Predict the structure.
Amino acid sequence: MEGQFKGRVAIVTGGSSGIGRAGAIAFAREGGQTYLVDLTGPRGQDYAGEFTLPYTPATWPTILRALEPGFDLAQADDETQATLSPLGDLAGLPQTAGQALAQALFASPDILTGFSVALDRFEGARVPLPVTLRFGGDCDPLAGLPWELLHHQGRFLVADSSISLSRCPAAS
């Protein structure tokens, strides 16, 4: 039955190879939105779901500059001040940016639920959840975003060792 999974979301564990990959491909072919969770391999990016960039692509370079040590908004040019002023207090910018990244990464309630369940299980085992963000093609600029600021459930997940983060390819 063609399109039988249209409008449905699958989070496939072990989805980068073997039967997990076959199931993910079949689900996607039938119209399902497929997200892969795999701890072992980089092959899943061909079938991964869409990611919506938080803020605009033009805003991120300004945010990254504002996050650098010693940045002083009072010394910034008018364009930088105009870009940053809607974002609120700069002291809270790391948290604001981290929440925006989390909101974009967990684009649907199903993804958020899957991530939260995995995070809870790894925290129960007292080990960081390994998270690999894979970038390729026209998504390479995403690798340069401050993923270390990922903020979820009121905390910075990398800083408190809840997750072990790696990027493929790594940010340059």
About this structure: Confidence is low (pLDDT under 50) at residues 39-50. Residues 59-168 form one domain. The helical segments are 18-29, 59-66, 78-84, 93-105, 109-124.
